[in-house]
Amino acid sequence: MIILRKKCRMLREGNATTAGGWEAALVLGIIVPQSNLGSMESDMYKRILVAIDGSVTSDLALREAIGLAKDQDAMLRLVHVVDVTPPAYMTAETGSAVALHFPLAEYQKALQEAGEKSLTTRAVTARDGGVNVDTKLITVGMPGERIYEAIEEQSKQWPADLIVIGTEGRRGFQRLMIGSVAEGLVRISTKPVLLIRGR
Description:
This protein is α/β, with parallel strands linked by helices. The protein has a single domain, classed as HUPs (Rossmann fold, 3-Layer(aba) Sandwich). Helix content is 45%, strand content 20%. It has helices at residues 2-13, 56-72, 92-101, 104-128, 147-157, 172-178, 181-188, and strands at residues 26-31, 47-51, 75-83, 133-140, 162-167, 193-197. Helix 5 (147-157) packs across helix 7 (181-188). The radius of gyration is 18 Å and the shape is globular. The two termini are 23 Å apart.
């Protein structure tokens, strides 16, 4: 918590640097499940899971996680979730006609390859930052499976001490229609979640 307060103060005072074309990040705070409140220590984050989706905001979250991992001497696990669920409009009757023009298997394979490439690129960034890192590509494909549920499950299996995720900070109608992986994760997570908002 001391490290994050210092980082927040630096951002507030304008002392945070923006190296390599990175935009400034806004650390929204750590959301800690009530069951974890009694075990809070200043050096408790040894395994940090970072959700990566290839966006500028997730890159900002990665940058914050790298800094935190260096300060805490922690390991990072970068996670990218690929949703290969067939579109809702694809039924048994329309599936063959749609597949003729839009091959679903090729699309799903392309999504997985893009996810692997994104993870590889970000892992290099973390290693260049002096952090021990590994990656995990997760595929969800059943109707009703949620990306945030896959992230939460991975945080338990690994197991992570902290989850870092970017958020766009949508409000109103956009938030209602689009939803938010970060918001869903915060609602169900049994681990502390550090939200990083892009600017």
